[in-house]
């Protein structure tokens, strides 16, 4: 199933790497549910680094960040220490399949994706543990407290996700 704007998100409880149970939708906040690639992906970590820098703005906008990686929990433990968002392990890609988040050979055929990968590698953000494979594509969903999907995006390549500015505009109700 692919979600689209206006759909009702099915109520889910995810288990964060921290051990906390996460209800989506969240009854008090918007939820930005992100599907990323494997936890050591230099492309994903470049994007998440930008989000970490603006974490207070995101929180002030009333957004709860939940990031899913197709990695094992043990691989994600070190990342959780430096990320102020909730992380969920999905090594078997159960949630990826459930929400139609795909893989593609075109994952890397984009200048932005290549540039993000190079920036991530230069910062030492690379892992050869590519649980779930290197071909994953990102997806973003902004879910209202009542479960309505305010916005949905399925990436066409590895660096095709909402920027922080786009996310904040969507949170204000502007597309």
Biggest sheet strand line-up? 5-4-3-6-7
> What is the level-2 CATH architecture name?
3-Layer(aba) Sandwich
Mean pLDDT: 84
Main sheet: strands, sense, barrel: 5 strands, mixed
Strand and helix order: EEEHHEHEHHEEH
What are the segments in which pLDDT stays under 50 over at least 5 consecutive residues?
none
User: How many strand segments?
Assistant: 7
Helix content: 25-40%
Main CATH class: Alpha Beta
Number of helices: 6
Write up this protein.
This protein has 175 residues and is α/β, with parallel strands linked by helices. It has helices spanning 42-53, 55-60, 73-80, 94-98, 111-122, 164-171, and strands at residues 12-15, 21-24, 30-35, 63-69, 86-89, 139-143, 149-154. The strands form two sheets. It has a five-stranded mixed β-sheet. Strand 1 (12-15) and strand 2 (21-24) form a beta hairpin. The longest helix has 12 residues, at 42-53. The protein has a single domain (12-171), classed as Glutaredoxin, CATH 3.40.30.10.
In short:
By secondary structure, the chain is an alpha/beta fold. The chain has a single domain, classed as 3-Layer(aba) Sandwich (Glutaredoxin). Helices cover 29% and strands 21% of the residues.
Keywords:
single chain, 175 residues, alpha/beta, Glutaredoxin, five-stranded mixed beta sheet, two-stranded antiparallel sheet, globular
């Amino acid at each position: 199933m692919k979600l689209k704007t206006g759909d009702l998100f099915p109520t889910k409880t995810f288990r964060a790497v921290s051990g906390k149970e996460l209800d989506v939708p969240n009854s008090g906040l918007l939820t930005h549910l992100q599907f990323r690639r494997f936890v050591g992906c230099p492309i994903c970590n470049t994007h998440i680094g930008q989000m970490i820098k603006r974490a207070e703005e995101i929180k002030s906008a009333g957004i709860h960040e939940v990031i899913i990686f197709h990695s094992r929990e043990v691989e994600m433990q070190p990342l959780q220490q430096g990320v102020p968002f909730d992380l969920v392990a999905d090594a078997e890609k159960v949630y990826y399949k459930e929400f139609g988040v795909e893989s593609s050979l075109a994952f890397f055929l984009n200048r932005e994706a290549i540039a993000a990968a190079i920036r991530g590698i230069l910062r030492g953000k690379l892992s050869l543990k590519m649980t779930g494979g290197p071909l994953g594509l990102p997806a973003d969903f902004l879910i209202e407290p009542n479960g309505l999907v305010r916005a949905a995006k399925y990436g066409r390549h590895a660096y095709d996700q909402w920027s922080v500015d786009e996310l904040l505009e969507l949170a204000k109700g502007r597309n």
